[in-house]
Amino acid sequence: MLTAFLLLPLAGVLMIAFLPKDREHEAKYLALLVTTIAFAISLFTFVWFDRSVEGYQFVDRLQWITAQDAGFTVQFVLGVDGLSLPMMVLTGLLTVAAVLISFNITLRPKEYFIWLLVLETAVAGVFLSLDLIQFFLFWELELLPMYLLISIWGSGRKEYSAMKFLLYTIGGSALMLVGFLVLGLSAGTFDIAELAAAPPAEAIIPLAAIFWFIMAAFLVKLPVFPVHTWLPDAHTDAPTAVSVMLAGVLLKMGGYGILRIVLPILPQQSLDFRMVLATIAGFSVVYGALITIRQRDLKRLVAYSSVSHMGFVLLGISAMGAVGLSGATLQMFTHGTITGLLFIMVGLVYDRAHTRQIADLSGLMHRMPLIGTVFVVTGLAALGLPGMSGFVAEITVFLGAFGPHPIATSFAVFGVVLGAGYILWTVQRVFTGPMNERWAHLPDATEWWERTAMAGMLASIGIVGIYPRVLTDVVNMGIAPIAAVLGGGA
Amino acid sequence: MNGWESLHFIGPALTLLIGAIVVLLVDLITDRRAATAGLTLLVLALTATYATVHVVLGTSGEALYGAVVIDRFGLYFAFLLIAITAAVVLTSFEGLDRISQAGEFYALLLTSCASMIVLAQANELITIFVALETTSIAQFVLAGLGRDDRSAEAGLKYLLTGAISAAVLLYGFAFLFGLAGTTSLAGIAHYVGTGPEGARLALTMAFVLIAAGLGFKMAIVPFHAWVPDVYQGAPTLVTTFLSAASKAAGFAIALRIFYTGLGGGDTFISQDWAMMFAVCAALSMTFGNLAAITQTDVKRLLGYSSIAQAGNIAVGLAAVASGSTLGPSAVLFFLGAYTATNLGAFICVIVVSKRIGSDDIRDYAGLLRRSPGVALVLALCLLSLTGIPPTAGFLAKVYIFNAAIQTGHAWLVGLVIVAVLNTAISAYYYLRWARTMVLDEPADATAFHPTLALGSLLAAMALAVLFFGLNPTWLIEAARRAAETLI
Fold it and tell me: Which of B326, B390, B416 sits opposite A72 (nearest CB)?
């Protein structure tokens, strides 16, 4: 099942690759078909997932590399638990949305959809891998499609942004490999489950150093201040669908990595450095929000708000208790859907107006009521209005984090206030107010694919907001063993 | 052991040498280059068959009074070297690139390959030296075979540095012989095993000199100065041969002398030579990568990149010295993966350079549109050189770093940190090149295609890079069994 989820996009890649040149515009239908089936598989997995059993389910295992005498075995293991399951669904959902929103791509469409599908496989591989080396392989594999998607189909300083993204990620993950190798060789296995069951007590270099080696990669990816500078550039210059993927799932790889690998395998070090993490988190939330307010470019604004929102994830993690960790996971999921949808809306506006300068846009609500309404609803979800999924996640993070980190949490709450400020102010400047005559001819979202993408994303935000248990049940099961290892540190 | 059996043991190398003479003779009769090239391929095929017979029979043992051994280690390199030479010969069908004397070119290739096979089999200092010099002399001439001054300059530069390093190497051998009283590696190993503390300084002198002499072949810093000039000046076919074969042979014999002779992990001086290679590795990687960033000529860039890659392999040597059980097989695996990658990259450069008449990186702009196949293979090889999955280069790096960390020495973890940071640096220039091919607009959009032979060769290299990246077990197993015979 999981292998099918992982390999299906690659099958799609092959099908698209063999499309004749004169039918290349059909690539999008193939991509839609494949990603929809993959999304369906992820939903089936979500439904069939046994909520009464802890641990990994649907495990597919294969010996991959074996050097028998020397203790270097790498497996190919896929499995889901309550932590990776939401991420898997998120990946399935957002890739469908990304494909839909790319239906107007006319530049080299075959290659475009091929790379989008490769990206889905790479990201899914990160979320489903249960072996450190395999995890690292997919982590690095994701670079290539992202780089090409930004630098070919992007806009503005696209090559600069793509290279910046690439070097930041490679630089961060270089040390992660060292950390993985030291961990794996000290314990004699690269299997994440085995490592988590018996965390190594010592290694040839201090475990604290390993902790930071691995955290470096995840913090860059998340990203948090001060290693966030690649994010606004990459987002601003990426095509809409890639921004959706980047904000929606790629950033989650960082938070997921911390939860899946760092906390269970290095619990003591995680507890030791929780104050540092909380400080970084609190700072990121406020700094990100303050910078967001100053943005003049609509897309850059949403990008910086991600820095702020990812700070919540780290804050929840730094609480090191069941509630905080659940909040962090929920925040990852909800941020994926909310910010993903925000990027779609920004893309729709840009497709029509061909500008993203907030100062130039005004009164769009008159011409595009549908886009405007969805933007407002999503914005309200993003600022954490009760009844929307964002509220559930943020409140859980604060509940979990206030006990251990009252100061950082207070700062973060202040960040929420700022968030309400920049979102409402943006809505006011862009959608309400007097209509600029320049925009009098603009059409609303009329294409079926635009509407389907919006509807699907809105539905997921609404469902989780109104009935959060559908998600929290699963998440709590995934969090319980991690929280147990951390010894109820909250 | 009778004489015939000894000849049987060095049979593959002998086949090549006899083949070289036949090629020269045939070249006298016919002017058709295809005939000579075809004959060379035939010789290589025969040699490969002979080596396969050895593998199937499981031949092992010493020959020629202990001067050479036949074991899996030697055979691993025999196959590697034959494959490299065959790839170079196949590429030469596309054109000889500034070389006019076809017969000499093929005969010298075979001679050089033969002596490198003997080198990988050598078990004794005199044989090592003779084999090393034979291959070097053939390569000096090869580097100077081009019709222009640049090639002549490259040949002379290579000759001068080569001669000096040979002298240094011989000086080191003299020290070893003086101390151990024997030239056989087994004898030296026995001597070192007795732990002669008083001779520590002299032994250190010996292995530093030997490393300096072999460092020239392996192209590690600080014995690298010839690399960019020779790589750029020599005909590209020869550069391809040097960068793949000469480097592999250098590391083969370094493993043989240091691992078998001086002992890995368990002798009183193994930490000393571990440290020496660690320093060389760190310098090679850092210098090679930093220098490569500013290059605009692709051959010079590949030259500096090969210095940096040699640094990666030297990490493996340091791991071997520190007693890593994975070390020797990691070095062999890396060499195998690197060979496929490097050959692929160089053959692409040859194809492109012939069509567009330039080695400037800017002229690779838009290659994807002009020749999609070549551009894809080259991009794949560049990814593999960087170490990005799912290529062989990724696993080779993981494997060699793994070997270093496995030893349990914190300073080797430090070395690996230097290595991974260097990987991040190298990503910049490798991927910048790939980006030029994929993204930039070509100044001249004429399409071109490689010949069928070269196209298939490139496809084979690309498949190898991908195959070893996705399913490395076969090559790892081969490397492991080869490494086992080394002690």
Answer: B326
**Which residue of B lies nearest to A118 if distances are taken between CA atoms?**
B390
CA–CA distances in Å: residue A267 to residues A151, A191, A483: 39, 17, 10
Q: Is B327 a member of any domain?
A: yes
What total of structural domains would you count in chain A? 1
Highest mean pLDDT out of A183-187, A311-315, B352-356, B387-391:
A311-315
How many angstroms separate the CA of residue B439 from the nearest CA in chain A?
7
Position A408 in a domain: yes
Owning domain of residue A347: 273-490
Burial status of residue B55 (CB atoms within 10 A of its CB: 0-12, 13-18, 19 or more): middle
Query: Which residues in B15-60 belong to E strands, given as ranges?
Result: none
Upper half-sphere CA count for residue B353 (Cβ side, 13 Å): 22
Which residue in the set B388, B402, B439 is minimally distant from A185, CB to CB? Answer: B402
Cα dihedral sign for B312, B316, B322, B324?
positive
Closest CA of chain A from B188, distance in Å: 27
Nearest residue on chain B to A150, judged by CA atoms? B439
Q: Residue B417: which domain range? A: 265-487
Do residues A314 and A281 lie in contact, with contact meaning Cβ atoms separated by under 8 Å? Answer: yes
Looking at every residue in chain B, the average pLDDT score rounds to 89
Peptide bond into A199 cis (omega under 30): no
SS (H, E, C) A388-436: CHHHHHHHHHHHHHHCCCHHHHHHHHHHHHHHHHHHHHHHHHHCCCCCC
Cα A216 from Cα B208, distance rounded (Å): 38
- Residue in A65, A141, A144 nearest the CB of B473: A65
Asked, for residue A381, whether it belongs to a domain, the answer is: yes
The reply to whether A464 falls in a domain is: yes
**DSSP secondary structure code for residue A386 in this structure:** T
Summarize the confidence of residues A451-463 as an average pLDDT.
86
Asked whether the beta carbons of B331 and B316 are under 8 A apart, the reply is yes
The residue written with tokens 């392989």 in the block is: A137
Judged against a pLDDT cut of 50, whether residue B79 lies above it is answered with yes
Label residue B404 exposed, middle or buried (CB < 10 Å: 0-12, 13-18, 19+). buried
Domain-embedded: residue B301: yes
User: Is B453 a member of any domain?
Assistant: yes
Give the pLDDT mean for A436-459.
80
A7 touches chain B (CB under 8 A): no
Do the chains contact at A177 and B401, CB–CB below 8 Å? yes
Is residue A470 a part of any domain in this protein? yes
Q: Answer yes or no: are the C-beta atoms of B100 and B151 closer than 8 Å.
A: no
pLDDT confidence band for A490 (50 / 70 / 90): very low
